[in-house]
Amino acid sequence: MTTARDLDMVNLRLILVSGKTQDFIFSPSDSAMDIAKHVFDNWPLGWEEEQVGSASILRLIFQGRFLHGSVTLGALKLPPGRTTVMHLVARETLPEPNSHGQRNREKITESNCCLLL
């Protein structure tokens, strides 16, 4: 039987670099840090080869962007009661927030045209 509480929960399907997946249920108030700790503490069977030494290096990627530890699922406006896919990777630090945007700006200013006479 589905309860109202179940409908408020977010189903996350986490994908490892190896392609292995596992579904987890979280509250919209759970943060990326909460999720990383929960997954670390409840490491799925079948993921043994990917086991990491600390929850602090687990990072979530959603729609191509690393999520900072304090970001909640609710802040991402994920649809409750539906499955959302995120990647889970082991990485010591997050990339600089503006590094990707800076690279894009640099590319825009480059010109690779030629003049035909």
From TrEMBL:
Main location: membrane
Top-rank lineage group of the source organism: Eukaryota
Compartment(s) of residence: Cell membrane
PROSITE patterns in alphabetical order: UBIQUITIN_2 (PS50053)
Cellular component GO terms held in the UniProt record: plasma membrane
CDD domains reported for this sequence: Ubl_UBL3 (cd17048)
Keywords noted in UniProt: Cell membrane, Lipoprotein, Membrane, Methylation, Palmitate, Prenylation
Membrane topology: Lipid-anchor
Ubiquitin-like domain location: 10-88
This protein's name: Ubiquitin-like protein 3
Record lineage: Eukaryota, Metazoa, Chordata, Craniata, Vertebrata
